[in-house]
Write a structure and sequence with these properties.
It contains seven helices and eight strands; from the N terminus they run E-H-E-E-E-E-H-E-E-E-H-H-H-H-H. The strands form two sheets. It has a four-stranded mixed β-sheet with strand order 1-4-3-2, with helices on one face. By secondary structure, it is an alpha/beta fold. It is globular, with a radius of gyration of 21 Å. A hairpin with a 7-residue loop joins strand 2 and strand 3. The protein has two domains: about 140 residues, 2,3-Dihydroxybiphenyl 1,2-Dioxygenase, domain 1, CATH 3.10.180; about 30 residues, no CATH class. The longest helix is centred in the middle third of the chain and has 13 residues.
């Protein structure tokens, strides 16, 4: 079945990529594996910190970002229960394998002078909570087993969200697909669908570009350091 099967990278905007790399490396023990000029974005840097061989936390810094002021309740939540604007990152939760590793991470974080609360047992996971640079709200969690949807999908919340029984059944078991060999054409631009933000003419040019031309003209596969 064709579907996502893990996190490849979560990209976070930053005005100080050095500070973020130092925090995630020293405080959380994550390895810096890439730092280079972001492909196709003039003046932008892109950094990747390893979760595993196929999963990373990424940071993007452009010259404009340092002058954009965070606004709590708009761009940032401030804690794992506070509001932020729809579509923004409310908090970031990272995984460890067991309770011992969770406590070991709490020790590591506190040893770097960073305050941590928890663990809090949520039933299907235990979590600790703390802050990162530039007002990131961070969590580290561990789960004993996979989440049991029969126990953790609350009928009251389903109803309040306006989800019908038919929708719930579809959400719990999405229709499988094996793809069509890349033969599905680009659909026309529909204002009712979600879209990336580009100048209108540039966006239309990108959408209308044949897939093979996009791959041939926009790909950059050479690493910045040659060996």
């Amino acid at each position: 079945m064709s579907r996502p099967n893990g996190l490849h990278n979560l990209a976070i905007s930053t005005g100080d990529i050095r500070r973020q790399i130092a925090f995630f490396s020293d405080v959380l023990g994550m390895e810096l594996v890439a730092l280079y000029w972001m492909h196709g974005v003039k003046g932008a840097w892109h950094g990747f910190l390893r979760l595993n061989d196929r999963s990373s936390i990424a940071f993007v810094q452009t010259p404009q970002m340092a002058s954009i002021a965070p606004q709590f309740g708009v761009s940032h939540a401030g804690n794992a229960g506070a509001p932020s604007a729809p579509g923004t990152m409310q908090h970031l939760a990272l995984n460890v394998d067991d309770d011992a590793q969770l406590i070991a991470m709490r020790d590591r974080i506190r040893s770097r002078g960073v305050n941590v609360i928890g663990p809090i047992d949520h039933g299907f996971c235990k979590s600790i909570y703390f802050a990162g640079p530039e007002h990131l709200t961070l969590e580290i969690s561990t789960s004993r087993a996979a989440i049991d949807p029969d126990a953790w999908i609350d009928p009251e919340v389903v109803a309040l969200a306006g989800i019908s029984a038919e929708e719930l059944a579809r959400f719990r078991a999405p229709a499988p697909t094996t793809g069509q060999g890349g033969t599905v054409p680009q659909p026309p631009i529909d204002p009712a669908q979600p879209h990336m933000r580009y100048p209108d003419a540039a966006y239309r040019k990108l959408i209308e570009m044949p897939d093979d031309v996009m791959t041939a003209t926009r790909s950059e596969t050479t690493p910045p350091v040659q060996r």
